[in-house]
Amino acid sequence: MQKKLIASLAVACAVAAPVAVADVAISGSTRMMAQYDGSTISLTDGWSRIRFNAGADLGNGQSVFAKHEFGVNIGMGHIKATAGQRVTVLGLKGDWGSIALGSQWDTGTKVIWKSCPHWNFGCIGGMNNGRMQQSARFDGSVGAFGVAADVVAASDVDQAGVVLTYDVGGLSLAGGYESRDGADNWSGVGGSMSLGDVGLGAYFNEVGADDGWSATVSMMGFDIQTGALNSASTHNIGYTAWASGPAKFRIEVSDGDSADTSGVGILRYDW
User: Rounded distance, CA 169 to CA 192, Å?
Assistant: First the structure.
């Protein structure tokens, strides 16, 4: 019995050895916020997540990579199970660019993120699909010009998109188009630029008869964003009140035509 146990352990160790030496990095972002929705105050999770990044050199300038990201609700103390909520991909990359397969951001985010502070209240007027499940995405660049193309194939080809970008110095421009099977197509243009310590950004996008836009100014710890979806306007202001290394505390207020004035205070630690 002991000999069989020793032999089984030896085989298990031999099989597990390649995994133990894999290039794996663990990181995450833990966030908790006090939220006011216009009538009540609650203490809730602020989109916390944990991620595992792995990669290996394949030789000849090629490499394989994988990313597994999970949403964590620290307020309730469990891992979230919502489909498509986070990025989980397997891909290859080299001098030619990269291709990723799995659940990931659509190419339209390269336009929308030109005027989106990436905090609680999101991107005013943005109508791209955000994260895509069962998708493939290619990213490549030549000099200051870049291209990103994606396809969603949950059942045949459900969506296909392409975005062209231009980045030089503090200027960044993007324009894209998404063809959506059985729905109105999306198109958008956006740009951002840095002028010393001041950041400026804007975008416009449309889907069928609907249109949305946003403009953002960032300076001295403030992000001031205004925009609209069709005729309903929204105005957001955020302020990073304290930051020390990977820890931050931020205050945000949002007011608009279609919702009561609301606000949050977010404590965030990126690790």
Answer: 11
Q: Classify domain 99-271 at the CATH superfamily level.
A: Porin (2.40.160.10)
Residue among 189, 33, 68 nearest 125 (CA): 189
Closest by alpha carbon to 103, among 86, 91, 82?
A: 86
Tens-place pLDDT, residues 245-263: 999 999 999 999 988 899 9
- The domain ranges of the chain are 47-95, 99-271
| Amino acid letter, residue 179 | S
> pLDDT tens digits for 17-35?
444 346 899 999 999 999 9
- Of residues 116 and 87, which shows the higher confidence score? 87
Q: What is the residue-wise DSSP string for 122-175?
A: --TT--S--EEEEEEEEEEEETTEEEEEEEE-SSS--EEEEEEEEEETTEEEEE
The model's pTM: 0.84
